[in-house]
Amino acid sequence: MLHKTIKYCSQCGSTGVKAMVPAGDTHPRPTCQSCGHVVYQNPTIIAGCIIEHQGKFLLGKRAVEPMVGKWSIPAGFMENGETVEQAATREVLEETGAEVEVLGPYSIFSVPHMNQVYIIFRARFIDFIMPFGEETSEIEFVDKSQVPWSELTYPAINQILTRYINEDGHGQFGLYMGCFEQGLVHPFVTVNQRN
Ligand SMILES: [Zn+2]
């Protein structure tokens, strides 16, 4: 269980914030010793897409930290008030300028040491409808022979794209879930077949 360090209570300004288990709760939470304010911290969701177009898929080069200069599929933090599909397509639009249609979920994986959950969809490219944003320096549709494997942001992205390319060759896509801390992002496999 990780908490961001909280020095000051956001309600009363006190410096007396300590981890305590609130009455009836199960987890320690940063709790103000002066006014009793409890801070609830929960994982953030990162949504993104593998964007398919004519046998290729879209990668973006990051213009900002972390991983500036590295390539990835477009993905970013879900905002309040949107669905996870909306988050994924919004991030795609912001980072690449592309309008896409979500085809289905492809990968769900947890990164517990970062308190993050990634939800990655397959999506169909429709069109570029605006310039890409400041988080991106370059975008490119690549086929399986053009992936900059040594310049991808994270091992998880390598794994997702490796599996995607293999499945694309067979014309059947599974749904995966896994855990970054177990070394493999996708230990569990489901394909669309009856048991
Ligand atoms: Zn307080």
Describe this structure in words.
The protein has 195 residues and is an alpha+beta fold. The chain folds into 2 domains: 41 residues, Ubiquitin Ligase Nedd4, Chain: W (Single Sheet); 147 residues, Nucleoside Triphosphate Pyrophosphohydrolase. The strands form 2 sheets. Strands 3, 4, 5, 6, 7, 8, 9, 10 and 11 form a 9-stranded mixed sheet that branches. A two-stranded antiparallel ribbon has the order 1-2. Bound molecules: zinc ion (ZN). Zinc ion binds next to loops. Keywords: Hydrolase, Magnesium. One of its GO terms (molecular function) is hydrolase activity. This is NUDIX hydrolase. InterPro entries: Nudix_hydrolase, NUDIX_hydrolase-like_dom_sf, NUDIX_hydrolase_CS, NUDIX_hydrolase_dom, Nudix_N.
Write a concise keyword list for the protein shown above.
single chain, about 200 residues, alpha+beta, Nucleoside Triphosphate Pyrophosphohydrolase, 2 domains, nine-stranded mixed β-sheet, two-stranded antiparallel sheet, 2 helices, binds zinc ion, NUDIX_hydrolase_CS, NUDIX hydrolase
Distinct compounds present: zinc ion
Can you tell me the number of structural domains?
2
Distance between the termini: 36 Å
Characterize the overall form.
Answer: elongated
Number of helices: 2
Specify the CATH architecture of the largest domain: Alpha-Beta Complex
Q: How many strand segments?
A: 11
Taking all Cα atoms into account, the compactness measure Rg is: 20 Å
Biggest beta-sheet profile: 9 strands, mixed
